Amino acid sequence: MFKDITIGQYVDGNSFIHKLDARMKIMLLIAYIVVLFMITTPLAYAIFTIFTVSLVLLSKVPFKYILKGLKPMLYILIFTATLNLFMTPGNIIWWQCPFWNALKITKEGTVVAVRMVLRLVYLVIGTSLLTLTTTPLMLTDGIEKLLKPFEIIKVPSHEIAMMMTIAIRFIPTLSEETEKIIKAQTARGADFESGNILRRAKAMVPILVPLFISAFKRADDLAIAMDSRCYNSGRKRTRMKQMKMTYRDVIAAILMIIFVAFIILLQNMR
Fold it and tell me: What backbone torsions phi and psi does residue 203 show, to the nearest 5 degrees?
């Protein structure tokens, strides 16, 4: 499961989305998320699905790679759907437990469950597309540039951007490390599948301890490497690759504005 995590990984490519400026991609992702939490009708979700599939095709990232990133979310999706399905009150009852009247499935609960699952799926796809088509360095520069105006109120834009990017970058690294530890412990006779919840939780201790040790060691190695290269966050730094907007970014912004306006118009026509 851990090896299926795609957030934080970068897939080299030459697509339209790959060539977009990192700042524009971050702003487009924010608009994408806002629209995602704004839509409520089946038609709007259908149009949003077409839009999302078009983005994946435009990025030229294989669909199998996108779907692989959804595997770690499977249990969260099932838990979210079950919770909303049985806990959301409603007037139209489709099924009710004969032994416990409070346990029932309503039309409203089903709608909310489907809506929440779709939102989580599209949220993962959208954020995965950002990291899959943007290098960690460009992502850091993009976040820093967007936070630059907040330096007026003493917001450390560079430090925040660096911390966020390092955290995202180390997600797949720690996932691979966890997978290796599980395989090593299994080869030594550890059992992570059988037993009740408490026994399984206790069996995770041999995984968490070496994982934390490895994470702290990687953090220390990274700090030493940055220090040996005379890294100083307070100093004004130059960049080998300067960020600049092109006609592709203008086209992408216009298309997103049209899409957002269309969704707003569709929502108001209900």
Answer: -70, -15
- What is the pTM for the complete model shown? 0.75
H helices of the chain, in order, are: 22-36, 42-59, 63-68, 74-87, 107-132, 136-147, 157-187, 197-203, 205-228, 247-268
pLDDT at 240 over 70: no
Residue whose C-alpha is closest to residue 21's, from 255, 257, 242, 193: 242
Dig out the tokens for 30 from the structure. 């924010």
Mean pLDDT (whole number) for 96-115 = 74
Q: What is the pLDDT of residue 103?
A: 65
In this predicted structure, the answer to whether residue 216 has a pLDDT above a threshold of 80 is yes
Distance CA 243, CA 247 (A): 13
Under DSSP, is residue 106 helix (H, G, I), strand (E, B) or coil? strand
Neighbours of 232 (CB within 10 A): 10
Are the C-beta atoms of 86 and 100 separated by less than 8 Å? no
**103: closest CA among 91, 120, 89, 86?**
86
| Structure-token match 């630059």, residue found | 148
Q: How confident is the model at residue 192 (pLDDT cuts 50, 70, 90)?
A: low
